Structure formats: structure tokens, C-alpha cells
Amino acid sequence: MKTPRSAWLLALAVLTGAAKEPAMKTSPDPEIVAGLIQIAPPAGWRRTTYSNAGGADLVVAFERGADRLLVQVFGAKGSYYKNPADFFAGPAATTMGRAPERTGEATVAGRPLALYRLHFPLMEGGPHDSTRRELRMGVETFCVPPPFQDGRFIVLSLQRESHVPDPDRVGEKAWEAFLRGVRLVTAKKTMGRKS
Amino acid sequence: MPPLAAGTDDPNLLRDVLSRVRLREDSDPRAASALQRALRDILRTPTGREVAEDFVAERASAEVRFEALDGTLISINGRRVVSGMLGQARSDEGRHVVALNRLYLDADPEIASREMAATLAHELFGHVLEHRRATQADFPLDVLNRYRGDEANGRLIGWLVQTELGAPLSDRGMWAYLKSPERYHQRLALIAPYYAQTFSAAEMANPLPSLRARLADVRDDRSLDDDAIALRKWRIVIEHLVAGHGMERRRFSSVSEDIENFLEHERALQNKASDEVEEAIQRRIDSLDSPQGREPLRRLSRSSRSEYLGSFESRLARYRTRLDMETRGRQLEPLTPPPPDQIGYKELEKLYQDDLRDNPRHWGL
């Protein structure tokens, strides 16, 4: 096959340059989530927290554009999902009812974990806007480390809240680094930010 | 779990509801039978019967009208469906009015009937009933209007009725809500001015920090710009695959159409919507952060601790669990199948990654 040489190469380089983030000088401190795991927040990503199930299900999110890295904690008292099996059967782990696709494996805190992929609907237009649009979906990759002794468990996810994939795979690169930075918290380890 | 078998409607309950719901005189003879059919469908469902009984017990009432609301009839797989505003609830000279889109009367009867049942349940047994409950509980109606659960309640009732009727589960909002109610509300607050000014019970206690955080979120949101950059790159990738690898251009027509639609039209519309959200939040902040805002803030804060709101939140949690249980084992059933023989974004991404790996020189690497 011939090697194309043309304007699109230059254009792509220009566009790639336009998408680059300014370099961050410092990395954020490690953070301990729910006293269960330590994570290394990605530099330059915006951090938010919220919860579902009346405060029982904590979510810590790091966002950059349409990409989101999530740490979700389930299994506490009042949690919507009591255990990983319950989670896998529910709407948070399925593509609107379809089981997630197993896509591979990743090592997290020294353990090999199955990676899953699902698609989720994007919110476009208010709830009273019933314009019939093509269904657009974002994509999520997630893994579930084994539950902790107290029954709580964590779901680690990368979500892309756009139907357009990122040719530069910025989110996926951050996700791979994020998983490498996960540590299980032992009783002695109390350093770092807590949420 | 399969959809619940819809039961038979209860003639006594139907009679009781009809004694409290009046159809405004309509010159179209189809209006009365359409309303009756929608009510009968609602009463065939467990959730529909439950909320209808509450409606009667609370002595709520409303007038239903078929009105020319924004929207149009479009054809999906040869069947005419309403696209646009399906219904609304409002107060008119002290009485509750539920307006249903008049286009329902000309739409495909089977689909229209199912959808009208959900719309009517949403407006009548969601908004109107809740308005009545709030009045009975001395809960300020202007505060109810600022509570995000009011809309979620209507949506949940509509989704439950539709699910229990065995209708296709094609509403993306329902799946998004089930996945994460909090994220659903966060996204709504960033795309629609009205929802940008509504609050959870917790936020209501002190709404200004929430509004300021939303304002920062809207201003910082770069997702439209990021999408535009990514889509321009995918346009270049498609050109490369066609010119350099001899792939047929027609196979990219669906993605290319999406790219051009977004870059030429949709981006501008979404930017405009985002500007409107920003303006609405700023206006609300200015209003609440002024001397005139002190009393509304006090009312919001006081209302956030009310027993009425507590029971409302519990009801929403119950509906969420019920909807989750009733939809488990069922799947999204889209109204339109994907176009055949087209390369979607997923395949396009794989083609690009494979070419990057196999032919890095194509990409200047």
C-alpha cells in the first residue's frame, strides 16, 4: 500500500497540538477514598465528589473535557448495590440492560482484574424535549476489585461522556496510569487527602 | 424479569378519576376516546393504579386539553410518531391544566396510545398530584418549582407506566437516571436553563454555593470544543482511509453526516443553549444574592427541612428501586435500527489504531 503524503498529516499535527494540555508543574497529593484505597489523582483534572442512594454511595470523579475517572464506593449501609453480583445485574454495570463486554485484564494493586466495557446514553436536551434524535452513547471501561471485609466494594471506571472517540486517547492513557497508582489502604497508611 | 402483565382496569377507579378529570370541550370527536383510552391504559398498571388512588384520595383535579404544542409528526419505520413537546402541566386561573400535544390524535394509534398514557401519568399523577400534596402540606409552591425532584417524580411515574405496559424501553433519560440519579441531575443542570435553577433537598438548604459551582462548571465545560477538535481529526482519518487505503466513501456517510451536522449546526445550537444556562444561573445568583433574595433563601432553607420534602425524597427512592427491578432483564429497544453497512465510530477508531500500529509513517511517526 502506498504511503499517503498530504495535507491531512499537517492538519492532524496542528489539531493535535491544539488539543494539548498545558504541562502541570506538580502532581496532586495521593488521596485516600473512603478509607479503602489510595489513588493518585491525575494532574490537571478537575475533582468533584457526589453520592447516590441518599449519600450511601460515594463517587469521587476526576474530569477533563468528556473524560471522567471515577471511584465509586458501594456496599455500605443503605447502598443501592449490596455486593458486586448485585452491581453487575443492575443498570450501572450494563449497556441499558445488556451485560457488559469483557475486554481484557489490568493489574490493580498487584492483582489481575477483569476489565469490562459498557455504553451508556448521553443526556442531550431537557426531559421535556422529546425530539426524536439518534441515540448517542458514551463508553465506560470499569473493573471491580474484590470486596473489603466490611462488605463495601469499589468500582473503578473511565467514562467518556461523548459519542465521539478521542483519537489521542488522552483518557485511556490517564486511566492506565490511574490504575497503576491504586493501592489498598492498610491500617497504618493514613497519609494523603481523605474523602 | 419480563414486563409486568398489565391488569384489567378498575371501572370504579376509572369512574372516580373521571369525576376529577375534565376534558375541555373539543371539536375533534377523537379527543374524548383518546383520553379515556390513555386513562384505561394507566389504570392497567400497578403504578398507575397506585397514583390514581392517591389522586382521588387527595381530592386533586385537573382539566385536560389537547393543544397545539411545539412539535411535529415524523415517520419512524413507516409509523407516525410525535416529536417535540408531548405535554405540560400548568395552572390557569387557579385550576390545574394538563395539555397534551394535539398531534397525538394524528399519530400512529398504537404508539400514540402508549406514549400518551406515559405523558398523561407524568403530568396528571406526577405534577398535578404533587402540587395538591404540597398545598395540603403548606409547602410553598414556588419552592416546589425549584425542587428538582418534582420533575424526576413525573418522569419516574411516566417511565413506570410505560414499562408496566410493556412498551419499548427507548427513553435514554430513563436509563441515564437508573445508572446514576445524581449524575442525571448534574447533566440536566448543565443543558437546560430551568433545571440549572433547581435543587436537591440538600442544596436547597444553601443554594448559592451550588449555583456558583454550576456556573463554574458551565464556564469551564470544554466538551463542545473537544468534540469539535476530535471530529475534525476523524474527518481527516476518513479522508486518509478513503484516499490512502481505497475504502469506499459511502461506508463513512453516516459518521460523516454526524461530523458535518455537529460542526455546521449542532455545535452552534449547543453553545447557544450553554450560554442560556449560564445567563439563567447568573441571574438567579444575582437575585438570591441581593437584599430581595434574603426571604426566598430563608424559604428555601426552611423548606429543605420539611417533613413533606423528606417523604417526597423517600417516594423517589422507592420509585427508582421499583423501576430498576421492573427493567432488569429487559434491554434498550431503539425505535430505529442502525443504518446497514455503515462504519460507526467504534470501527473507525479501530481502523485508525490499526493503521497507527501497522503504518506509523502514514501518521508522521
Describe the structure.
The complex is a heterodimer of chains A (195) and B (365). By secondary structure, chain A is an alpha+beta fold. Chain A contains 3 helices and 11 strands. Chain A has helices spanning 7-19, 84-89, 170-180, and strands spanning 31-33, 37-39, 46-52, 57-64, 67-74, 101-108, 111-121, 137-143, 153-160, 183-184, 193-194. Chain A has a 7-stranded antiparallel β-sheet with strand order 3-4-5-9-8-7-6, with helices on one face. In chain A, strand 3 and strand 4 (57-64) form a beta hairpin. Residues 1-5 and 17-23 of chain A have low confidence and may be disordered. Chain B is an alpha/beta fold. In chain B, 62% of the residues lie in helices and 9% in strands. In chain B, the strands form 2 sheets. In chain B, strands 1-2-6-5 form a 4-stranded mixed β-sheet, with helices on one face. Chain B has a two-stranded antiparallel ribbon with strand order 3-4. At the A-B interface, helix 1 and strand 3 of A face strand 3, strand 4, helix 7, helix 8 and helix 12 of B.
Contiguous low-pLDDT stretches of chain A (5 residues minimum) are: 1-5, 17-23
Largest sheet of chain A: 7 strands, antiparallel
The average pLDDT of chain A is: 84
User: Any idea what the shape of chain B is?
Assistant: globular
Overall shape of chain A: it is: globular
Helix content of chain A: 10-25%
Computed over alpha carbons, the radius of gyration of chain A is 19 Å
Give me the count of strands of chain A.
11
* Order of the strands making up the biggest sheet of chain A: 3-4-5-9-8-7-6
Structural category of chain A is alpha+beta
**H/E element sequence of chain A:** HEEEEEHEEEEHEE
If helices are DSSP runs of H or I spanning 4 or more residues, what is the number of helices of chain B? 16
Strand order of the largest sheet of chain B: 1-2-6-5
Question: Multimeric state of these chains?
Answer: heterodimer
CATH architecture of chain A: Sandwich
Q: How many β-strands of chain B, per DSSP?
A: 6
What Rg of chain B do the Cα atoms give? Answer: 24 Å
- Largest Cβ-defined interface: A-B, 53 and 74 residues
Number of domains of chain A: 1
Question: How many separate helices of chain A?
Answer: 3
